Request: fold
Amino acid sequence: MKNFLLFLLVILASALPPATAPEYSIQAIRYASAEDEVAGLVMGAPKGEKINIAMVVWLIRGGGHNILFDSGYHRDTFLRSFPSAEYIRPDEAVKLAGVQPEEITDIVISHSHWDHLGGIDLFPKATVWIQKEEFRYYTADAWQPGGNHGGIDPEDVQQLVKLNTEGRLRLVNGDNVEVLPGIRAYTGARHTYASQYIRVEGHPPFVLASDNCYLYRNLGEHKASATFSEADQPANIKNQARMIELAGSPDRVVPGHDMLQFQKFPTEGRVAKIR
Reply:
């Protein structure tokens, strides 16, 4: 009898319609700005042209979650060496969107560079999501002879390991993985060893590219962002096309550092309402 009841429960569960994902809101929050050279952002662009870039975290809300895509930075290492303007700490920046730091439930990290990973310790209750191979490489091989840890802050790596020992780290294993309902992670752009970008389902869907696509100009000119190695640039361009396909329009792919996102979307102060 017990087995029969279990069989009935399985049949009933399979007949239920699939759970729908929350209709998330998406906001871009600018915590600083800086001047940079276009040739360092758009591979193959003429040298000497400067551009004002935005330093951004993205806030995604819905279904009981307050999710950050990337976490900004705050450590002295790069505060001293990277000249930026209008800097406020990311945990203060999210308050501008009406969320307290302790209310952030999840942080999805696109990649391990200091300005995207460095704020993970500012949000005390957040679960942090990162690609499994990204975590493995930057906590091990990157620091061995022949490894590549350019742009990686050792203190950020230590915080990642600490979060793992505390049970607050989740490793995303590969491409096209749903990390939270309606939010899927994709790999292949190779900005870092195993960087990722996300698609937020909804009406309409959006792709948040982070540094896998620095600027709208990368999309328009079909030119790569900086990649882990020069050999990865064709894959980066291919994945930009994939981002457009996943979003349904290039207008719904949000690049990592483009100040234009604060012009394309309704903006109040430092906060742009993407959806």
Summary: The mean pLDDT is 94. Residues 25-270 form a domain with the Metallo-beta-lactamase; Chain A fold (CATH 3.60.15.10). The CA atoms of residues 151 and 203 lie 36 Å apart.
